[in-house]
Specification:
single chain, alpha+beta, 6-stranded mixed β-sheet, 3-stranded mixed β-sheet, 17% helix
Length: 110
């Protein structure tokens, strides 16, 4: 399961509403090799899901979709959105990670 906080869901909905492509109704969350710790969190706006994707309803008509391979690394993650004097952005708490970079955008697993 992936947990999305209310503040993250609201930000995703706000971004989707401001998107140039009105057909987009979902945020695809996935991991990709790279970053200083080995794996990087990535996000794209998409229309719907693909066969085999895990889908999570965030708000009225807004979905979070995750492909099966990424879900292996993201199961149990909490996705939050934070604003502070230092900046604003999505923050991930990943119990599967054995290490992370200082900026929080990449992680490693054993």
């Amino acid at each position: 399961m992936i947990t999305v906080t209310d503040s993250a869901a609201q930000e995703i909905q706000r971004l989707l509403e401001g998107s140039d492509d009105e057909a987009h109704n979902a945020l695809r969350l996935y991991v990709q090799g790279g970053g200083c710790a080995g794996m990087t969190y990535k996000m794209d706006f998409v229309t719907g899901s693909n066969p085999g994707d895990k889908t999570f309803d965030l708000a009225e008509g807004v979905l979070l979709v995750v492909d099966p391979k990424s879900y292996l690394f993201l199961n149990g993650v909490t996705m939050d959105f934070k604003e502070s004097l230092m900046g604003r952005g999505f923050v991930f708490e990943n119990p599967n990670a054995s290490g992370a970079c200082g900026c929080g955008t990449s992680f490693s697993v054993n």
